Amino acid sequence: MTSISYVQQQRITRLCVRCGLLLMQYGAESAVVVDLSKRLGLALGMNSVECSLNFNAITLTTIRNERCITTTRDTINQSINVNLLVQIQQIVNKTEAVTDNHNNNNNNNKLNHELTDRTILAFDELDKTIYPTWLVGLFVGTSCAAFAYLNGGSLSITAVTFIAGMVAMFTRIYLSKHHFNPFITVIVTAFIASLIGATTYYFDIGNNADIAVASSVLLLVPSFPLINSLSDILKGYVNIGVGRAVFTYMLTLSACVGIVMALVLLRIQHWGF
Fold first, then answer.
1. How confident is the model over 1-54, as pLDDT tens digits?
2. Is 51 helix (H, G, I), strand (E, B) or coil?
3. What are the backbone angles phi and psi of residue 50, rounded to the nearest 5°?
4. Which of 83, 82, 26, 79 lies closest to 219, judged by CA?
């Protein structure tokens, strides 16, 4: 059995927890986080990799020749980035492929160092490029407007919804970049979207003002986190699944608070009736 030094095992441990941390931060479900972190550690020569997840932390242990190294990292919520998740999965697949192709190599210790270096470099070079703010706002506004139009809104209602959705998305991105509390961000975003959408009541615009108000806040529907929370619970990761579900419900409640604040400010009491 090839010997791996303590320092080398430390590097592999840090790399595995980095893999799991990035997956958690950018929206992967718990089963994927655990699976890819374990596969990466095994591909780099560990006998076993154990991974435990909490809502805001990850704990990972690597075992090699009865020697254990454990590390814990806090997670910071980031915007969902499926492209980044795919890149990480590809890195793990390539690392496993290299290991499988060199199983009979006599210089496994040197190979392990080189493979670890290449994998670390691959993580350093992850493409974290995101779409420009103006483009995201434009498409979010268009999607909200399309929903309003499909639900019977007139062109004027559709136009107001487009403006409300676009401005709300710009606001959400701005607040997120400045690290505001996510619940405060949702409240402010919902307030601005509803305030603009509710002008259809105030100025008697279009055929159905309710559609504008309802459609302008669609960008705040936490569909991806809600699906992840349900998936985690069904796959046995109950603790983190419940944590994600509570976080999702709090985001929904925050959106409701923002909507009500806007309607109260404009003294609109008959929304939805």
1. 457 889 999 999 999 999 999 999 898 899 999 999 999 999 998 999 999 998
2. strand
3. -115, 135
4. 79
Sequence letter at residue 46: M
187 within 8 A of 168, measured Cβ to Cβ? no
Q: Which H helix or E strand runs over 197?
A: helix 182-197
Q: What pLDDT score was predicted for residue 270?
A: 64
Q: Cβ contacts of residue 107 below 8 Å, gap of 6+?
A: none
**Which pLDDT value is given to residue 1?**
47
Backbone angles phi, psi at 44, to 5 degrees: -95, 10
**What distance, in Å, lies between the first and last C-alpha atoms of the chain?**
73
Q: Which two tokens stand for residue 19?
A: 């893999």
DSSP 74-96: E-------HHHHHHHHHHHHHHH
Q: Is the dihedral of CA 150, 151, 155, 161 positive or negative?
A: negative
Note the helical H segments in 102-132. 108-124
Contact by Cβ (8 Å): 28, 220: no
* Assigned token pair, 213: 């108000």
For residue 50, which of 64, 39, 60 has the smallest C-alpha distance? 60
For the chain, give the number of residues. Answer: 273
Sheet holding 57-64, edge to edge: 48-54, 57-64, 67-74
Residue 161 has a CB neighbour count (10 Å cut-off) of: 34
Cβ neighbors of 105 (< 8 A, separation 6 or more) are: 111
CA 191 to chain centre: 23
- Bridge-partner residues for 84, per DSSP? none
What does 198-254 look like in DSSP terms, one character per residue?
Answer: THHHHTT-SS-HHHHHHHHTGGG--HHHHHHHHHHHHTT-HHHHHHHHHHHHHHHHH
